[in-house]
Target: Integrase
Amino acid sequence: MKVALYARVSTEKQIENYSIPVQKERIYALCKSKGWTDVVEYIDGGYSGSNLNRPALIKLQEDIEQGLINAVVVYRLDRLSRSQRDTIYLIEDKFLPHNVEFISISETIDTSTPFGRAMIGIMSVFAQLERETITERLKSGRLKMVKDEGLWAGGAATTPYGYTRLERGQLVVNENERHHVRRIFEEYVSLKSYIKVQQKLEKEGFKPIPKHRILTLLKNRLYLGEVSFAGEWHKGSHEALITEDLFNAVQTVFEQSTRKNFGKIKNNVFRRKIICGECGETYLSYMNREKKSGNKYYYMICKNRKVAPEGGCKCTNRNLRRTTLEEEIFTRIMNLEAGDYQAPPQTKKPEDIQPQLEKLDNKISKLIDLYLESGLSKEHYETKLADYNKQKEELLSKSKESNYEQTAMEQMIQDGIPNLFECDLETQTSIIDLFIDHIIVHPTDLEIIWKK
Model:
């Protein structure tokens, strides 16, 4: 009997009853009582339960499909997922078809019994309800913070350039960056290119800022002394860094730039990024003219469909209207939210702490054995267990803090993705290059491979 131990926490600083060591302790105790000794651990530390985009869970599904797992055990149902749809999908489409039993200790759910299978749907409803209730409360709290108190509701990990973030989202001006922000707005009005602005100010000795952040900065009403929530702007409690006249002048330049580029062939936006899902060749851009109206239209076609490879057959994959392609890709990028893009784990050297974690796991296992078999006092057991768990959490926390670096994609999602339909060609190309590695054209849909 090969058993998969699955444990998850959404943050490293999880409450005691939900910490990974506690989950593992309870699961190992259950496995021991059933005589299961072949246990494989799948641990997702710091991942939300609102979706299935978790490294260990993905690996678990792959192993199940290969017939390597006979049972999956979790501490609580919401450790597997907080979405009713995802829970039912995993149970009915992954576990049961491969004869994998699913056991949740806290809810006493065991899918090897008819009652256990019936309870899955009921319990997953409450798990989803809990998640949605928490989300609604957080939204209400943030709206009050923004609308009534004028506080910034951005993430704690980032602060708008030009300000320092105090407790509860209070922003105060960073005097070392105040002049830089104002110069960026002023120079853009005259140079009309954020890349030229960046180059000029860097030559003058100003701190380098990524090009995409300059673009976001120039469109951000935060610098007018406003704060936003859910797309609506309100009077902020922080000091404005620019005047409304200067901000409006910058937006006028943006509008003029958009009109100037309207109707141009935008071949560079998706250069070498469109790949045929049938033959693997790249898609090329072409222009055609309708015979009756004389109107031009632009489309993309697989290279092997336009010109058959030597000794081979023409590809039969579909052509793409350029306007249709842009509409779908631009919309999907603009609709990205912080929870949608899951950056890959960025721990640079996991082996540095792995030996220490394994030693602590061994100590915990021995402690459990002593408690269950040798009459170890409950007080001594709980004290030692708490000490071991604290050591593990400190190791994981230090590792995450020292090695995690926010990606450029996460930063732009945090700052706000601009309206790509209103951007000039230069801006569109820069954002596409930032977010997308390549796009695979299938007969019925488009698959985006995001950059990591």
